[in-house]
Each structure stands twice: as structure tokens, then as C-alpha cells.
Amino acid sequence: MFKFSRNLCRLSLITGLIFIQFSVNAQVKWISADADFAPLPKAFHVFKTTDSLDGKPFIAYYAVASLKKKKLLFTADTTFKRRLTPAGFYEKNDRPLLVVNTSFFSFATNQNLNLVVKNGELISYNTHSIPLKGKDTFQFKHPFGSAIGISKKRKAAIAWTYTDSSLQHVYVVERPIPAMKDSVNSFPFKTAQLLTRNSLNDRFDLYEWNQQTAVGGGPVLVQSGQIKVTNNEEMKFAGKAINDLHPRTLMGYTKDHKIIVMVIEGRNPGVADGATLTQAAQLMVDLGCVEALNLDGGGSSCMLINGKETIKPSDKGQQRLVPAVFIIHQKRK
Fold first, then answer.
1. What is the CA radius of gyration of the chain?
2. Which of 166, 170, 162 lies closest to 191, judged by CA?
3. DSSP 210-245
4. Which of 129, 209, 241, 262 has minimal CB crowding within 10 Å?
């Protein structure tokens, strides 16, 4: 079983909270792309850039939608033991306004590795136990994965989440904590409670997170309007991989209650190189995001507006089969 002390956990927390903060110049010029995807409702807009990013070729799109407009409905969808292309989800869900890929997944089992909440019901769970390698072959780490949620009151939030198939609800902490290391391939709720209490000094215990819609991914990129990447705590990318250029899918929200969904084209030499996580974070900060997180990227990155592709998918130019998507519907009269 695991062993840790309050002092060790506090030291780990202090170390873990030294976030990655680089100075990057991610300012790009965005132009309206509404006409390319019309018709669109007044509370929903699409923007595109083909500016270079830090001297490299760059293409990205983002959609911005008002959470206050009740004509816009925010939801998610997933599949069971199979995957669909975003276009497949578009047809399955009665041709919504926006469809975008979300969670990481297993190619072998088609299983989501992050939570999905639909209509207030938890329908997909986090993978909390990650097997280690090398001298730690028989060890596991247990991270809290991040997610973005939208409540019944149409307010957005990002948190670090715990899910368990024996529990009906999602539980969260509002600050990242270091992943626990032990020799047990399980992470029960009582252990998660003990970890958070010791790491966060009883002030930030796990609490129930009641969201109408939520999708998981990670790492978090933006907190309190600043670049704060929690890759180490969430154990998403090893070594210096966060500095690699890749296609990206990002989600965040602004102070004035707007959701921003961005996709970045990449792996298209001479046309679109992609972005690092830090560059992606800066782009979201520049757009006014209070909080933002990374979702599954690479060949999975794909956003459809009214069924039309935005970026060119990098998976041989074809939409990759994925097990979960975030969706925005326009309420029909």
C-alpha cells in the first residue's frame, strides 16, 4: 500500500505547483469565418487565422458561444466499445451546430480514458492508475485528470476530477495535486479523500461536482487568466513533449460567460506546423480565457461547424474515429 507524510505531501505540492510558465509571443490576427459556415445564430461566431506563430506556419480556428443564450444547448456524446468520426457523431446527433473531439482514449479497447457527463449523468470514467516503467515496473501513479463542465445554471468551470464506477457523481478538487505513487492498481474513493486531505491541508477536500455537461482531457493550460500548465500533476505528456508542435484541441471560458473551442492544424509541413502546449495556452489567454484545458490532439483534432470541417485532420487527411465529442446545438423553433 502507499506511504506518505503530511510534510512530504506539502513539499510535493509546493514542487508540483511550480507551473510551467514560458514567455511566448502567440499573438495572431483572427478574422471572421462566419460566412464560410453560415447560417449561424447571433450568439455563435467562428474565427480563423493563417498568421505565422512564433515564425512558423500556422492555421487555427475557434468558435465562441454565449452561455447566456438559451437557444444554444451544450452537451456531449460518447459510444460504447466503438468509435465514430466527428461526421458520424454529427449525423447521430441530428446535425448540431458544433461537434469537436474531446477525451483521450485507448486504440485497443476504444475506451474513453477521461470522464464524460451527459444530461447530468456520468457516462464515462477517468483512468486513475497509470503503470510505471523501468525500475518502477511494479509501481503505479494515480493522477486526478482535469475536465471542463457546464452546470444547469449555464456556468462553466474547470477542475481536477475523481470518478469511480461505484459512485454516481464526479468528485473534484479546485487545485492540482501531485499524483500518488504506490504498488496497487486501484485508487478507491477513501484513498483519494486521504490524499487530498493530506496534500491540501484539509482546506480543499474532494466535493461533489454537479455538472449538466462535462468532458475530460488535460492538462489544464490556463488558470485565473494566466498560463499555468499542470502537466506534471496530470501525467499527460512525458519529458519535454509539451514543447513539441502538434495539432491541438482546446476548450476554455471567458469572464463574460462565453465558451471558446479551438482547433489547431498541425503535422502539415510548410502549411501548418501545430503548436506547443505553452503556445496553445497563450492563444487562449489572448482570447480572454479565465480557464482553459487541452483535450485529445494529434490525429484526433477535428471540429465541425454545421457539418463542415475547419482544420484539415492530420490523420492522413481523414477524420479519426473517436469515442466522445462535445456538442453545441441550436434550439429549433
1. 19
2. 162
3. --SEEEE---EEEETTEE-B-HHHHT-S-TTGGGS-
4. 241
Q: Is 102 exposed, middle or buried (0-12, 13-18, 19+ CB in 10 A)?
A: buried
Which segments of 60-139 are extended strands (E)?
60-66, 72-78, 98-101, 116-118, 121-124, 130-131
**The three grid cell numbers given for residue 233, joined into one nine-digit string:** 500533476
Which amino acid belongs to residue 8? L
Nearest to 291 by CA among 161, 149, 151: 149
23, 56, 231 from 273: Cα distances, Å:
19, 7, 22
Distance between terminal CA atoms of the chain? 57
Segment 153-200, tens digit of pLDDT: 999 999 999 999 899 999 999 899 999 999 999 999 999 998 888 876
Angle, helix 6-16 to helix 189-199, in steps of 10 degrees: 80
For residues 273 and 58, the answer to whether their CB atoms sit within 8 Å is: yes
Amino acid at 257: H
Nearest to 6 by CA among 172, 132, 14: 14
The domains of the chain are located at 6-330
CA atoms within 13 A on the CB side of 10: 6
Q: Which three cell numbers stand for residue 203?
A: 482546506
Distance CA 56, CA 102 (A): 26
In a 3-state reduction of DSSP, which class is residue 158?
strand
Which uninterrupted H or E stretch holds 89?
A: helix 86-92
**Exposed/middle/buried for 38, CB within 10 Å: 0-12, 13-18, 19+?**
exposed
Q: 294 near 218, Cβ under 8 Å? A: yes
pLDDT digits over 115-136, tens only? 999 999 999 999 999 999 888 8
